[in-house]
Amino acid sequence: MQAKTIKYTVNDPIQELSVTTNSANFTCSAHGCCDQIADETIEQVCDEFIELIPEFFTHGTFTISNEVLTPQISKCLSQRFPEFDFDPYLTQMFYMTKNQETEFMNSIETGIALPEEYRTKLSELPYSLVRHSPSGNAVAFEHIDAVGLLTHQFTLAEHRQKGLGAAVEMHMCRQLIALGLTPFKFVELFNVKVLQTSEKTSYWTRRNTDNGTPSVTTYLGMFNKKSQNQ
């Protein structure tokens, strides 16, 4: 299923809600606004999406929005779907500017720094995946979702603290830049170490509000109460 988008202009700028698919999971994103939108508009958008893609709300999903819109979206959806629980996951977004993309690509021109035993494995494997030899098990990996968001980075515990997480992230970013896409990711607020590392790394820029404070993006999980109890 291709991404479907509904756009509304509300007091300028454009308020954009986009629906994308990743396997059987759906994500609804609200972008382009730092100010509150009228409740009537939020309700109109929700109702149009429900009519457009009813399966979106069958088992559960995530909405992605800023601190201002999340309470409105949560209120609207909870009124329409009382059979769902709503759990917020707070994140900060990091992305690359064009200058950072250039700097990043130059920094890895001669290769991505890795422990010697992993170097050949990463360069030879597709996507960002490192396998252990001889078992063939995945050691570290990362991939993207349908809109190019870096996601699901993971390194097995026994292989951590060796730079593999950073290596698969860099490998994934190199592929995105080569495709003309802007690398970006969301880091949950409880993951303090990754937040601090991302802030210090020269090739990431944290998205801030107009007054310079970190912009918080909320993943609002919707979980069907009936399905959870089965």
From TrEMBL:
Q: Does the keyword Transferase apply?
A: yes
**What protein name applies here?**
Glycine N-acyltransferase-like protein
EC class of this enzyme? transferase
Listed A to Z, the keywords are: Acyltransferase, Transferase
- Superkingdom classification of source: Eukaryota
Which molecular-function annotations from GO does this UniProt entry contain?
glycine N-acyltransferase activity
The answer to whether the entry has keyword Translocase is no
Q: Which GO terms describe its cellular component?
A: mitochondrion
Q: Which InterPro entries match?
A: Glycine_N-acyltransferase (IPR010313)
Name the family.
Belongs to the glycine N-acyltransferase family.
EC number(s)?
2.3.1.-
